[in-house]
Amino acid sequence: MERMCTPGAQMAAGGWPTEAAAGEPPAQVDPAEGALIERSRHGDLDAFDRLVAAHQDRVYHTAYRITGNADDAHDAAQETFVKAFRALPRYRHEAAFGTWLHRIAVNAALDIVRRRPQAPPVPLEDVALPASAHNPDREAERREVQQRVHRALQQLSPDHRVIIVLRDLQGLAYEEIAAVLRIPLGTVRSRLSRARDALRRVLRDLAPGEPLEEG
Question: Which of 54, 88, 104, 197 has the highest count of CB atoms within 10 angstroms of its CB?
Fold first, then answer.
């Protein structure tokens, strides 16, 4: 993936993430990351570039799965980090920094989906996927499954697509998803169940009778 531009070169972008819900407990902060955040608050672009480097792959992949398009995903990721840089003075560790970034990334990607005509999904060659155990046949099969899932995601509603991406592809905990989407925990579970049902219907020829992970 192409490295994100520094926020100093992109300061024309606008918009602010919303504050955390009242009463939400402060998140645990990694000391090294916390130091980079504090330096970034004071305009240290090198410190913020290090935060970008630590989080850009997950942000990009989230945006890619939501938008279904590499160019749109790059735009959404770029916008995410610009908005995050501009909003850092208001970040008070109400959520973990990665959760906070996911919230911005999801909103940025959904904004693009709503603004632009839906483009046909492209292959996954530009998305980093974990390597398999040196078995070319299984690797080819795995890539085909990934591509079918990617195409199927684009057929879901934005709400269903987002929650599948956050839980089943990014592995966020239910509590993290509730924080990212600002919805109750019960809504996370019910929406995820409906989203998985919708995805199963689209993928019924992919693995008949085999349920998605429920963990």
Answer: 104
Q: What is the DSSP letter of 8?
A: G
| Confidence (pTM) | 0.70
Query: Taking CA 214 as the corner, what is the angle to CA 212 and CA 215, rounded to the nearest 5 degrees?
Result: 130
Q: For residue 179, give both structure tokens.
A: 């924080």
Left if phi > 0, otherwise alpha if psi is -120 to 50, otherwise beta: which for 119? beta
Tokens of 204: 């019924």
How many angstroms separate the CA atoms of 173 and 177, rounded?
6
Contact 17, 87 (CB under 8 A): yes
Cβ(16)–Cβ(83) below 8 Å? yes
Quote the CA–CA distance of 104 and 11 in Å, as a whole number.
16
Q: What is the CA radius of gyration of the chain?
A: 18
Question: Distance (Å, rounded) from C-alpha 70 to C-alpha 137?
Answer: 26
User: Among 78, 84, 79, which residue's Cα sits nearest to residue 101?
Assistant: 84
pLDDT in tens, the chain (215 residues): 444 554 444 433 333 333 333 334 445 667 899 999 999 999 999 999 999 999 999 999 999 999 998 999 999 999 999 999 999 988 888 788 999 999 999 999 999 988 865 545 444 444 444 444 566 677 777 777 778 888 889 889 999 999 999 999 899 999 999 999 999 999 999 999 999 999 999 888 555 444 454 44
Q: Around 39, how many Cα atoms within 13 Å sit in the side-chain half-sphere?
A: 14
